[in-house]
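tool=predict chain=A
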Amino acid sequence: MPDLRVEGVNVSLVSERRPDPPPLETNDVAIVAGGTALWALALVVLLVLRVAGSDIHDWWLVMCGAGALLGLLGLRFCVRRQRAIAAG
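tool=predict ok
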C-alpha cells in the first residue's frame, strides 16, 4: 500500500503486526462444574415446583437434564485434558 505524505509527514497505512499475547490460564474444571451445578439446580427447582402443582413444561425439565448431562461429559473431558497437560 502506498504511503500518504502530508506536508512532510509520512503516514503509513500498513503497520507491523504485533505478536500474539500468551494464552490465558483458566480453571476450566471449575467453570464447567459451576455450569453443570446450575443446570442440576434448575432441574431440582423445576421438579420441586412440578410436585408442588405448578404448570411446568416438560421441555424445561428435558433441557435442564440435558444441560446437566452434557455438563458432566464436559467435566470429564476437562479433567482428562488437565491431567494430560500436567503429564506432559
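The chain has two helices and two strands. Residues 43 and 63 are 9 Å apart (CA to CA).
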